[in-house]
Design brief:
The chain is an alpha/beta fold and about 140 residues long. Helices cover about 50% and strands about 20% of the residues. It folds into two domains: about 100 residues; about 35 residues, no CATH class. The longest helix has 14 residues.
Length: about 140
């Protein structure tokens, strides 16, 4: 089963077509539908028992992130280990796999802040992808 952000077919149709080929595919948009996807995902897993579940979203979207967190939460609720994978599409082009731990970690902003304070150079990488961050830096003159 593929759970993909609803915007993915518009962001990169070719990639979406490749990923969804031969899979049961669910499109979801937490921005439009609200953020309670974990219950729906848990019910689907309990009812359909998919062999594997892959989540693919657009990197950097605060709404899309909820799909990754929802799958991990559904696994927790069900009390079973799932065969699952998490991917993000970087800059609309590159498919990058992220770990369960990366999804869990980013929910804890205090820990993210500790890592940023220890490794501020990672913000150089952020400036390559985030239009919001680029604008902030331009406004501040940095």
């Amino acid at each position: 089963m593929l759970i993909a952000s609803a915007c993915l077919p518009f962001v990169n149709k070719q990639l979406f077509d490749e990923l969804s080929n031969g899979r049961v595919t669910l499109l979801a948009c937490p921005e439009e539908e609200g953020g309670m996807h974990y219950g729906k995902i848990a019910a689907i897993i309990r009812s359909a028992r998919p062999r594997t579940i892959t989540v693919v979203t657009v990197d950097g979207s605060p709404h899309c992130f909820m799909l990754h967190a929802s799958l991990n939460t559904a696994e927790y609720i069900l009390g079973t280990e799932l065969s699952k994978r998490h991917f993000v599409v970087v800059d609309g082009k590159e498919l990058v796999e992220v770990s369960d731990d990366a999804v869990r970690f980013t929910r804890y902003l205090s820990l993210v802040d500790k890592v940023l304070n220890k490794h501020p150079e990672i913000l150089n990488e952020l400036s390559k992808h985030s239009l919001e961050y680029k604008l902030l830096k331009r406004r501040s003159g940095a």
